[in-house]
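Why do we bother with holo predictions? Because pocket geometry can differ from the apo form. Keep that in mind while you read this record for inosinic acid.
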Amino acid sequence: MRKIIFATQNKGKIKEVSHLLSSSGIQLISLLDFDDVPNIIENGKTFEENAKIKAKIIFDKYKIPTMSDDSGLSVDQLDGSPGVFSARYAGENATDEENNDKLLCDLKGFPEPHLAKFICSAVYYNGINFITSNGEVKGKLISSPRGKNGFGYDPLFIPNGYNVTSAELDMNEKNKISHRAIAFKKLINLIQTTENI
Ligand code: IMP
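The structure, written out:
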């Protein structure tokens, strides 16, 4: 089995990506398996830049090939915002609810539909080369939150082809269509080909 670090402490992401790796020949370890994890400042201008920053810092520290991701919401009428600021749209330590409130406030005055997409950039770094892959899910935003599952902007987002929000979808169903699943499925195939796994 080839060992790869997934540079995250987010249990939801670890579960989602581990599932994609079953019978892949890759053993996933995460930052939850280390107790001296370096502090990472995500100051890139794009999702890809941020994912590369994370992968490089973690590879340089542990010398084990590393996958990482960065993701967020891009709203057409807001010229791509909140984008890389998705997690801290309403401020440094903002809650999901505060971020959602700010988004709804910013969208007041714009006509419906509020077209948007979730974007994920997934990256692999082996100390020499980066491999990158992107995934996105298109949809629209509604004007009051619905549903209790998921996290972040899920209660406001209706994926194309559905009439429920991502927060009303069952976890397994959401993960099947998620921007992260799309990006990581492609990334894992590319890693297997490049690294002969
Ligand atoms: P990160 O990739 O963990 O840095 O995610 C950044 C932020 O994007 C999260 O805090 C959420 O606000 C938002 N986000 C990313 N993926 C999702 C998703 O699947 N649903 C809802 N919000 C998301």
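The longest helix spans residues 47-62.
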